[in-house]
Amino acid sequence: MNHVYLVPGFFGFANLGDFAYWGHVVRKLGDELPGWQIHPVVTRPTATLPQRAMRLLDAIEKTADPGDALHVVGHSTGGIDGRMLAAPGVVLPDGRTSEAVKGRMKTVVSVCTPHHGTPSAAFFATLQGKAALRALSLATVFSIRRGRVPLNILLKLGQVVTTTSRRLTGGAHGLSDELFQTLLGEFSEERRDAIAAFLSDVSDDRALLPQLTADSMQLVNATLPNHRQVRYGSVVARAAPPRLSSFVEAGLRPTAHAGRALYIGCWNLAGAWSAGPEPSVPHACVMLDTWGEVPGPGDNDAIVPTCSQPWGDLIRCVTGDHLDVLGHFAGPNLDPRHYDWLPSGSLFTDAHFQALWADVAQYLRA
């Protein structure tokens, strides 16, 4: 039996209960891989990499038999979780080792993963950034669940992120906390309790973000060698840079303009390599011809620099943002409907989504 484990990144707050962080991907892979078992993994989004790898191993031990083949598809930080579990000689905090999956781990696919770090981590690791990340993550839940975030929330989130993208410093986080409480109040009492309990659990361990800086990832990469029996592939994304025409395309809709302002702040944060050393351009990036040019250090998907994402085989490079690749793009006429949380103007469509995940499925089958 083949098992595919879908591991979320630090926006994995959306992987709670019936919130469809992986919903569109599960449906697509289910069509492409009949007979395979597909498991969205519940993890603690901002826990340390070893703690997250433990959650992945927990999921494997609960669902797979000793002779089954294992495949990991990780979005964002989830790709590093897969690498950590597959790496030879790794000892997890509870004493378990990579021997637990030896010979069964076949594939690790990373999607928009910060293998060489991301400057966004420098912001989200500050006091203001942690509060903003909590509000952003809950807003992601809200968007995926209800289709759009209220205008007043978008405006305030845009203010927090855009202002801070101009200066990577900490500061008062009362505004972000206010946003969080406002968003939480939009859900039913039962749902509020579930989300609050989950985030309380998450708050006990928030050490992931410092591990995702460029300096820290150099150390991580030096200690996580690829396993020679595992195939590693990656999906690389580059979102459209902010441009004046995108405001024209937004028309007169206030929510579109507010969402666009939030995107610009995120894009500037992810492109601020002054927060750490610039990455070298991996060979895989040089080979990319989808964009007609080699991506530079400033190119990113609004969360992760493009040149930080390649690892192993290049499965596909796309023009899209960090959440487009999961199916969270504008698709009001699709069934089920796709909701766009980061309006990047990248023109990512259902055709791109279908082609991307068909390629991932083909890589898993191979």
Structural commentary:
Helix content is 43%, strand content 11%. The chain has 366 residues and is of the alpha/beta class. The chain has a domain at 2-118 and 214-247 and 280-365: Alpha/Beta hydrolase fold, catalytic domain (Rossmann fold, 3-Layer(aba) Sandwich), CATH 3.40.50.1820. The chain has a six-stranded parallel beta sheet, sandwiched between helices. It is globular. The two termini are 15 Å apart. 49% of the residues are buried. Mean pLDDT is 78; it is low at 165-179 and 250-255.
Shape: globular
The number of helices is 14
Name of the level-1 CATH class of the domain at 2-118 and 214-247 and 280-365:
Alpha Beta
Strand count? 6
Record the strand order, biggest sheet.
2-1-3-4-5-6
For the largest beta-sheet, the strand count, sense and barrel status come to: 6 strands, parallel
From the 3D structure, determine the CATH topology of the domain at 2-118 and 214-247 and 280-365: Rossmann fold
Mean pLDDT: 78
Encode the helix/strand succession as letters. EHEHEHEHHHHHHHEHHHEH
Please state the CA-atom Rg, rounded to the nearest Å.
Answer: 19 Å
- Extract low-pLDDT stretches: 165-179, 250-255
Say which CATH homologous superfamily of the domain at 2-118 and 214-247 and 280-365 is assigned: Alpha/Beta hydrolase fold, catalytic domain
Can you name the CATH architecture of the domain at 2-118 and 214-247 and 280-365?
3-Layer(aba) Sandwich
Give helix % range.
Answer: 40-55%
